[in-house]
Design brief:
Helix 3 crosses helix 14 and helix 4 crosses helix 5. The protein has two domains: 143 residues, 3-Layer(aba) Sandwich (Rossmann fold), CATH 3.40.50; 151 residues, NAD(P)-binding Rossmann-like Domain (Rossmann fold). The chain has 403 residues and is an alpha/beta fold. The chain has a seven-stranded mixed sheet with strand order 9-8-7-6-10-11-12. Strands 1-2-4-3-5 form a five-stranded mixed sheet, sandwiched between helices. The structure holds nicotinamide-adenine-dinucleotide. Nicotinamide-adenine-dinucleotide binds next to helix 7 and strand 7.
C-alpha cells in the first residue's frame, strides 16, 4: 500500500534517488512489547507496539491508541501517515504511532491507568522529549497522557512533561489544543474563500464531535452559514443557518443533535449531497464512496476527518473538478498545537490562547499556501500537491543528512 502511494508521487520528484522512496516504505524501527497487568483480579498479558517511521525533521510524533483491533500493520501504516502529516504542517517532528491491543470499555479506570503505566514502562527506552513524543489517539485521552507522563518522569527521575502531548492544561497541556483541529479547518476555509472569491458560503458539517463542533462554531462566529450538522444518529438542517450553540446545548442535554427544536431532520446520507458551497466530513473514514460521489454537489470539501473519501470516490470528484483540501493538511491543526505544547514544555513557557491561535493561523496558512503552490506547479490536485510537498521535505533532509 505504501509502495503504491509512493509510486504515485515518484514521477513528480524524479531528481530524488530511488533509495529514498525505498527507505520510506519501511519504518526506522518497529517495537513490539508485551507486559502484564492485573485485570479483574487476573494477571493478564497485553501486547502493544510503538512504530517509529521517520525522524529526519525531529522526534517521532504520533498517537497511542487503545483498541482490540490494533495490529502491527495498522500502526505501521499510521506511523507513515504521521511522517507525511508533520511534513505537510512543517513542524519539526517525524512520524510515529503506538497502540495496545485492549478493549478499554471492559476496564475500570484503575485498570486503564495500570495499562497506561505498564505500556510506558515497556517503551520508555525508545521515547523521550528529543526522541519520540506520543499523544492521544482512539480511546486514549488527556488523563491517560498524564499517567503516561508521570510514569516516564518516575523512570527518568525528573518531571518530564515534554515526553508526551495532549495532557490536561494543568499538567503542562497547551491552551487551544481542544479547539485546534476545528480551528485549523476554519483557517483553511478562510483561505479557500479568499483564493476562490467565494460568496454567500453555505456549509454542511458531518460529525459534531471535537473537530466538527469547533469548526462549525468558529465558522458561524465569522459569519458563515452552517446549514446542516450531524452525529452518528442523524442530523439537523436549516436553510437559513443553524445556531451552533443551540445545537450544542441540545446535544449535551440529550446525547444527539437530532430533534433540536425548530430545525428539520436530515439523514447523514442526505447531508453529504446537500447543495452547499463547502462540505466538511468531520466524523469518520470512508463516508464518500463511489456510491455517492456522483451526487456530491459541494464544489469544495475540507477533510477534517481522516480518510473520509475512498480512492475511487476521490478520482470521481477530481474529474468533476471538486476542490478537496486533504486530511493531512485540513486536520493538521491538532498536530501543530501538539508541537506548540511540546515547545512550551521544552522552554518552560506558557502561551495564552490568543498566542496559540495566532501561531496556528500562521502555520496552517503557510502549509496551505505551500500545497496550493506545489499543486499548481505540477498541475495536480491539492491531495497530490500535499504528498509531493511532504515527500520532498523529508527527502531533502534525508539527502542533506546523508551528503
Ligand atoms: P469525536 O469522537 O469527538 O467526534 C466524532 C463525531 O462523529 C461524533 O459527533 C459522532 O457522533 C460522529 N459520528 C460517528 N459516526 C458517524 C457517522 N456514521 N455519521 C455521522 N457522524 C458520525 O472525534 P473527533 O476528534 O472530532 O474526530 C473526528 C475525525 O477527525 C476522525 O476521523 C479523527 O481521526 C479526525 N481527527 C481529529 C483530530 C482531533 O484533534 N480531534 C485530529 C486529526 C484528525
Amino acid at each position: 500500500m505504501l509502495k503504491d502511494f509512493l509510486a504515485q508521487i515518484k514521477p513528480y520528484l524524479s531528481n530524488i534517488p530511488s533509495y529514498v522512496f525505498e527507505k520510506l516504505e519501511t519504518p526506522d524501527r518497529a517495537v513490539e512489547v508485551s507486559f502484564i497487568v492485573k485485570i479483574q483480579e487476573r494477571e493478564t498479558v497485553l501486547k502493544g507496539y510503538r512504530i517509529q517511521h521517520n525522524n529526519v525533521h525531529g522526534p517521532y510524533k504520533g498517537g497511542i491508541r487503545f483498541s482490540p483491533f490494533v495490529s502491527k500493520e495498522e500502526v505501521n501504516y499510521l506511523a507513515f501517515w504521521m511522517s507525511i502529516k508533520t511534513a505537510v504542517a512543517n513542524v519539526p517532528f517525524g512520524g510515529g504511532k503506538g497502540g495496545v491491543i485492549v478493549d478499554t470499555k471492559k476496564l475500570t479506570q484503575e485498570e486503564i491507568e495500570a495499562v497506561s503505566r505498564a505500556y510506558i514502562r515497556a517503551i520508555a527506552d525508545i521515547i523521550g522529549p528529543t526522541k519520540d513524543v506520543p499523544a492521544p489517539d482512539m480511546y486514549t485521552n488527556p488523563q491517560i497522557m498524564k499517567w503516561m507522563m508521570d510514569e516516564y518522569s518516575k523512570i527518568v527521575g525528573k518531571p518530564t512533561p515534554a515526553v508526551i502531548t495532549g495532557k490536561p492544561i494543568k499538567s503542562g497541556g497547551s491552551q487551544g489544543r481542544i479547539e485546534a483541529t476545528g480551528l485549523g479547518g476554519f483557517y483553511i476555509l478562510e483561505s479557500l474563500v479568499r483564493d476562490y472569491n467565494l460568496k454567500d458560503v453555505k456549509i454542511a458539517v458531518q460529525g459534531f464531535g471535537n473537530a466538527g463542533y469547533h469548526f462549525a462554531k468558529f465558522a458561524q462566529e465569522a459569519g458563515f452559514t452552517i446549514v446542516a450538522v450531524s452525529d452518528s444518529q442523524g442530523g439537523v438542517y436549516s436553510e437559513n443557518g443553524l445556531d451552533i450553540d443551540k445545537v450544542k446545548e441540545y446535544k449535551t442535554s440529550t446525547g444527539s443533535v437530532i430533534n433540536t427544536p425548530d430545525y428539520q431532520h436530515i439523514s447523514n446520507k442526505d447531508l453529504l449531497t446537500l447543495n452547499v458551497t463547502v462540505l466538511v466530513p468531520a466524523a469518520k473514514e470512508d463516508v464518500i464512496t463511489e456510491e455517492n460521489a456522483a451526487n456530491i454537489r459541494a464544489r469544495y470539501i475540507i477533510e477534517l476527518a481522516n480518510g473520509p473519501i475512498t480512492l475511487d470516490a476521490d478520482t470521481m470528484l477530481e474529474q468533476k473538478g471538486t476542490v478537496i483540501v486533504p486530511d493531512v493538511l485540513a486536520n493538521s491543526g491538532g498536530v501543530t498545537v501538539s508541537y506548540f505544547e511540546w515547545y512550551q514544555n521544552m522552554h518552560n513557557e506558557v502561551w495564552s490562547k490568543d498566542t496559540v491561535f495566532n501561531k496556528l493561523k500562521d502555520y496552517i496558512t503557510n502549509a496551505y499556501n505551500g500545497v496550493v503552490h506545489t499543486a499548481k506547479e505540477h498541475d495536480v490536485s491539492l491531495r497530490k500537491g500535499a504528498y509531493i510537498v511532504a515527500v520532498k521535505r523529508i527527502a531533502d533532509k534525508m539527502l542533506t543528512n546523508n551528503g
